[in-house]
Amino acid sequence: RSQSAILDSDPSKFDRLANPIDPKDGSIEKRVRSYLHVNCSPCHVEAGGGNSKIRLDLGATLAQMNLLETKPSHHSFGLQDARLVAQGSPQRSVLWHRIQTTGEGKMPPVGRNVTDSEGAKLIEEWIRSLPVPKAAPAQTNPAQ
Predict the structure, then answer these.
(1) Helices 117-129 and 28-39, interaxial angle, to 10°?
(2) 127 close to 85: Cβ distance less than 8 angstroms
(3) DSSP bridge partners of 70
(4) CB 75: neighbour CB atoms within 10 A?
(5) Which are the contacts of 36, defined by CB distance < 8 A and separation ≥ 6?
(6) What is the pLDDT along the chain (144 residues), one digit of tens a residue?
């Protein structure tokens, strides 16, 4: 391939998004990160019109995402000991709840009236795969 006239490097050298629903197209983390990048990151940016402190773009490291074991600052939906992502526990994870609900608090908040069941299943599988922390104190970042 020749170098692009627009890009500084050959496009094939850039990281690419994975197909979130194809288990053969990368690790579960890569597929989840691709899903969140496409479906969530356009709105969930710091100072992006909301008060989100999470980063869901592919360029953020897992730590920079501010998701894992972070207490929700807006709404916990009655989830016991809720976290944005409760490692190993989708039932306590606001992210999973927001993706799979069609009611108040659904994400995205407009433009959808059905659940992305494949996306919700992917997020659930990823959360279950995350190691449960050993009594680590929860972060308290305003997020969502």
Answers:
(1) 130
(2) yes
(3) 139
(4) 14
(5) 56
(6) 555 567 777 777 777 899 999 999 999 999 999 999 999 988 887 666 556 789 999 989 999 999 999 999 888 999 999 999 999 999 999 999 999 988 888 888 877 788 899 999 999 999 999 999 987 555 555 444
| Average pLDDT over all residues of the chain | 86
> One-letter amino acid identity for 134?
K
| Residue 35 main-chain phi, psi, to 5 deg | -60, -50
Cα–Cα distance for residue pair 29/18, rounded to 1 Å: 10
Q: Report how far residue 88's alpha carbon sits from residue 57's, in angstroms, rounded to the nearest whole number.
A: 22
Distance CA 66, CA 52 (A): 10
CA atoms of 143 and 64, how far apart (whole Å): 12
The amino acid occupying position 114 is: V
The rounded distance, in Å, linking the Cα atoms of 87 and 89 is: 6
Amino acid at residue number 135: A
Determine the number of helices (DSSP H) and then strands (DSSP E) in the chain.
3, 0
Q: In the prediction, which pLDDT does 129 show?
A: 97
The residue behind tokens 């996306």 is 119
